[in-house]
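Fold sample X.
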Amino acid sequence: MIERFDHVAMVVKNTDETVEMMTRFFGFEVGDVLTDSEAGFKSTMISKNAVTIELIEPVGSEGIMQKFVEKRGGGLHHISVRVPDLEAEMKRLRAEGVQFVSEEPIQVNPTSKVVFIHPRSTNGLLIELAQKD
């Protein structure tokens, strides 16, 4: 069961430029920043009121985000919805035939874990399910 919308994730070529623009135009403020060099990206959360956007920038010349930028130049990556019990939601959706990108949730930080629904189960849209304690 979905509790609420969590965020929209956008792949960008330059986080600093995008943050500056979103701050100047709309008053967004920077929140959490995570760099995953192994996966090849930096994630920056920006928020204003109840709106949160994750900016994903490739780090290095390899990785899935760099390929995304090369192919599309940036843009929508995924939408994220919050659920109260991630494992229960995965079980329910698997019973409906939904496929996931990974078999197990990913622990993003001590209080958050996520899993992505494979786009072939959602007409091409990448959807992240997030549980935050």
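Fold sample Y, listed below.
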Amino acid sequence: MNYYEMLYIASSTLQEAEREELIKKLNDFILQKNGEIITENRWGTRTLAYPISKSTSGYYVLEYIKLPSENLSDLRYFMQINEGFLRSMILRKNSVPVAEKKKEEAKKEEVRKTETVEKEVSNNGDRSE
């Protein structure tokens, strides 16, 4: 599985409920293709540098995902056929995204703390005998 940075622009003409449904549909598609959503950062509505499909603004979303490389073309096709997306850009990352690194470090820290507590408990138990 590879890590990807995906930035897409949803049409600003969509109602909030429609936009949420579109984003949910995309995330469900990624999960269905054995992918994983690491982080999702919604930037909100912003003015476009130039009009796209007669729209002057769009709703930006940045996601870091983990996806098998054979499913990447399916993801690109999914975004092309859904009319709610104005533009998308998917970049392969050579290293683990920062958010994923923080998760891994937090897990390691939690394991280390648990082991330390277990050692202290077992040492205190040995002393009391």
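Sample Y note: Strands lie at 2-11, 36-52, 55-67, 85-93.
Also: The helical segments are 16-32, 72-81, 98-128.
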